Amino acid sequence: MRTDIDKINEQSPYTDLTEGLQLFAGGTSRKFLTGEWRTDTPVWHFDKCKQCLLCTPTCPDVCIPVVDGKRKGFDYDHCKGCGICAKVCPFGAIEMKEGVNP
Amino acid sequence: MQGTLELRWHGRGGQGAKTAALLLADVAFKTGQYVQGFPEYGPERMGAPITAFNRISPEPIRVHSNIYRPDYVIVVDETLLHTVHVTEGLKEEGAIIINTPKTEEEIRPLLRGYKGRVVTIDARAISERTLGKNFPNTPMLAAAVAVCRVMDKQAFIDDMEASFRHKFAKKPEVIEGNMLALQQAFEAVE
Amino acid sequence: MSTGKSRRERMSGNEAVAYAIRQVDPDVMPAFPITPSTEIPQMVSSYIANGEVSTEFIPVESEHSAMSAAIGSEAAGARTMTATSSAGLALMWEELLLAASNRLPIVLTLVNRTLSGPININCDHSDGMGARDTGWIQIYSENNQEAYDNYIQAFPIAEAAGVHLPVMVCQDGFITSHAVENIELLEDEDVKMFVGDYDPEEFLLNPGSPVSVGPYSVSSYAMEAKKLQEEAMEHAREAVLAVAERFEELSGRKYGFFEEYRTDDADYIMLIMGSAAGTAKAAVDELREQGKKAGVLKLRVFRPFPEKELAQALANCKAAAIMDRCESYNGNCGPLGMEVPAGLYRNKIQIETVNYIYGLAGRDFTTDHVKEIFAELEEIADGKREPVQHRYIGLRG
Fold it and tell me: May I ask the CATH architecture of the domain C258-392?
């Protein structure tokens, strides 16, 4: 039986951990909501966006989803607010605003 | 250990003394005895003096050290007599077998006072006659088997022929010469 | 059912291990050659070329890469082994720790050779002892037979549930690796049945059952992980004994944490590992003929360290020589010289012990040395001599 790693936390006794701390699941970073670390938030100005998609590959946390060749709104569950996307946008379509939910 | 025969080989890197020791272990193994065949290792350098050892016993052998009081010493290259103390620790009731065209009387003064039996054999001449080249280890192996009475001649010859047929399966032309070398060397010291 | 058959042969220690590898037929062998273990990957390569095994050989550019590849391959789900010596093991250092902490049952055959310097190719245990705290199970062999038997037992020990740790099977470089001696070989089918198919529960190349191996661990988990790993080493004790019992049923040859040779009534015991144990036994036979109550305790399993069992085995002697084929440069003693007396103290057993350093970098160790040591032990027990710790034997004074 696989250990349910969702039941392991920082209070778990050592005997409940897995051998070698192996994680029996894929894509577990999705469950880790790094959006909570954000102090500044990128805001997307849809009207200025040319869909050049320069912002998407520069995001270190893969928080700018692309569907059918077009970027969509930010994934705020995981965006840490680093501001790289705002820096690379040639059209001023991404603005960094102070606060978690400006 | 009682009943254990201990042999020490002296040769030079590249002459096949180590191979001869391993072959002797092979031969003795086939007589149903316990054997050890091992060289004293160092950097492998062509021409440098090397030592190899054999233990042969009816009982399992446990000692894993070099041999300091051998029953027999085999010298594959007589030039070693000037630089290496080949008779060191050699038992007087044993023997030393030396590859040389010289006689026992000529060679004994080089043996640092060793009083035991000295067997000389011109392995180089035998090898050049039978194999066309100087491979002294093959005749020296036969001489060692004969002098140390590891097994009788026919059993030895049959055994070696079988292993040569296996070893030289792709070069059958060398088997006859090797067999001749073994036979002539065995007879030379018998 | 086993065939119950065995075959008498003669071969060197390296040949014996290569033969066992052929019989086990592991999935992957990444290796880099180094004296005196070079013959092992060489012979396995011949087996592969001749189609006698299905092992995938990975030629790598260093031992660091060899162990890295072994970790990747074992994590992927392949039964993996490698071979090395001396500096090769030292270069694997970082990866050895990862193999153990990732709980990967890799088997490494170590042909013991000294670590530089001075640079030297001959035997001592400084390579294996240098890796004694890397989390690997370590088994030492006296001769080609034990190198063969221990190698075959290594897989079921490593892969046992609750263990999942890598195993290092050690034999003495040149002394046994290059010496031709008699051996009894098992039938191929018996070895295959004994080690069984490798069927890990969790592995990387397992579609639908994703697993991450070796994740970064923050401090709130790492200490717990280390304790869990230490417990696996504790579990290895049972696995070593259970596998030995099964092996005895197959081969008739008995193994445990250590072998006790004529120790029952012994006043003086020499505790020793590897090929020199054979030399010690031969000397003890001679001493017994002279009426001396001498015995040999040959340690086979160094990790996990059988501290309690060793202490009990030494409890009734007057004095023990603890033999280290390794200098620790700690101003105190060798590795066994440290751990054995610690076990005696913990178990409240008070006997005289002397820690001897012997056989460094291929220095020959003879029956005369053994007799000299037993004579010293006797004098110490009789109060004629003060025990001096951390002594060298076979050293020009």
Answer: 3-Layer(aba) Sandwich (3.40)
With an 8 Å Cβ cutoff, the interface of chain A facing chain C consists of 2, 10, 12-15, 17, 19-28
Chain B interface includes C279 (CB < 8 A): yes
The span from the first CA to the last CA of chain A, in angstroms, equals 45
Read off the CATH number of the domain in which A51 is found.
Answer: 3.30.70.20
Total CB pairs under 8 A between chain B and C = 68
Q: How many Cβ atoms sit within 10 Å of the Cβ of residue C49?
A: 10
Residues A37 and A67 reside in one and the same domain: yes
Is this model's pTM higher than 0.80 or not? yes
Give the closest residue to C297 by CA, choosing from C336, C245, C247, C239: C336
**C 80-119 → A contacts, CB under 8 A:** 101-104
Residues in chain B with pLDDT values less than 70: 1-2, 43
**Is the Cα torsion angle C254, C256, C261, C266 positive or negative in sign?**
negative
- Measured CA to CA, the distance from residue B67 to residue B54 in angstroms comes to 8
Confidence label for C1 from pLDDT (cuts 50, 70 and 90): low
What is the rounded average pLDDT of the residues C113-134? 97
pLDDT single digits (tens) A5-41 = 889 999 999 999 999 999 998 888 888 899 999 999 9
ipTM reported for the complex, 2 dp: 0.94
- A42 and A74, same structural domain? yes
What is the number of structural domains in chain A? Answer: 2
